[in-house]
């Protein structure tokens, strides 16, 4: 994509620190990554409910939901996945700058794309959470039957089947969602979101 040469960023009159003071929290992005079926959306929405109940302002950016709107024009080629994550990272950054705790649930299979997300959001605001769940367990939970369809050849470029997943090398948190309960994971996530 070409960068526009006639666009100049505009500064507002309300500083990020003022927004955070108003909300009584620091904005950040908790980025959930892992295979389809590893529990990204489940944990993101459960954490949203837990934080909301505690009086925290938060929002979930879910990969499937963004593909119905903001990213509806994108497929699943490597270039389209990259653009999908670029857009998501830009939105997540805006939420963090508004003082919101943004919970972003995206497979985001490639390390280079996750590094791009880190650069867009800002390393000080991004908390990467890797949902470490074996492929077999993800397939066993496959309520959408995506793995079955991918193995039958009906879905091309499906992560874990016909497209690679590169686990993070140094995430802030690793959750073994096959063996840890949702409650155990949530406790660790609440601690991370308070840091």
Automatic annotation (TrEMBL):
Reaction(s) catalysed (UniProt annotation): adenosine 5'-phosphosulfate + ATP = 3'-phosphoadenylyl sulfate + ADP + H(+)
GO molecular function, one term: adenylylsulfate kinase activity
Keywords: ATP-binding, Kinase, Nucleotide-binding, Phosphoprotein, Plasmid, Transferase
Active site per UniProt: 108
Chain positions recorded as ATP binding sites: 34-41
HAMAP family according to UniProt: Adenylyl_sulf_kinase
Name this protein carries in UniProt: Adenylyl-sulfate kinase
GN (gene name): cysC
